Amino acid sequence: MGDGRFVLYGEDEASGVKLHEPRIDMLAGAPDWLPFEELHDRLEGYELGCVYWYDSGVWARASYPDDLRDDGLDCGMSRFVDREDVLGELRLYLIDGDHGPSAHHLLSDAEAYRLKARVLLDSLRAARPTDPDAVARVLVAAGVATPTA
């Protein structure tokens, strides 16, 4: 969202938020910089199971009742919580051998905001995008990668 702010939202069919009674307002207490038009559209279509926002070094979300067990975030994000799991997942998509940077190098660069989009794309062995320049632009716009000089 810019200015060091992030929003993470999504939907999983197992989300307990969508069907919880009484209804949970996933946007309660949300800051005014969230993409409310997009979020409301997704709410109306039952395509929203969780909304988290990050600002000033802190993640937050609306309060949930004590009996809510799953908002769907775990299903979509659990394999990215542990660094070794992330590296293992990344290795599945990288060219084998010494023909490019290691998963560790790519992840370290991404964490330090110095990942070059083209380096990542050139390191993929599977699921190569049909328009790598467009993918690179999206990675840069999302703040995941820096432009290649």
Sequence-ordered SSE layout with sheet pairings:
Layout (H helix, E strand, L loop, with lengths): L5 E5 L25 H9 L5 E6 L2 E3 L12 H5 L5 H9 L11 H9 L5 H7 L8 H10 L8
Antiparallel strand pairs: 1-2, 2-3
Describe this structure in words.
This protein is an alpha+beta fold and 149 residues long. It has six helices and three strands. It has a three-stranded antiparallel β-sheet, with no helix packed on it. The chain is elongated.
Residues in helices, as a percent range: 25-40%
Order of helices and strands: EHEEHHHHH
Largest sheet: 3 strands, antiparallel
Shape: elongated
Report the radius of gyration as a whole number of Å. Answer: 18 Å
- Indicate the proportion of strand residues: 5-15%
Provide a count of the helices.
6
Number of strands: 3
What is the end-to-end distance?
Answer: 24 Å
- The helix-and-strand class reads alpha+beta
| Order of adjacent strands in the largest pleated sheet | 1-2-3
Q: Averaged pLDDT, please?
A: 83
Residue ranges: pLDDT <50 for 5 or more in a row? none
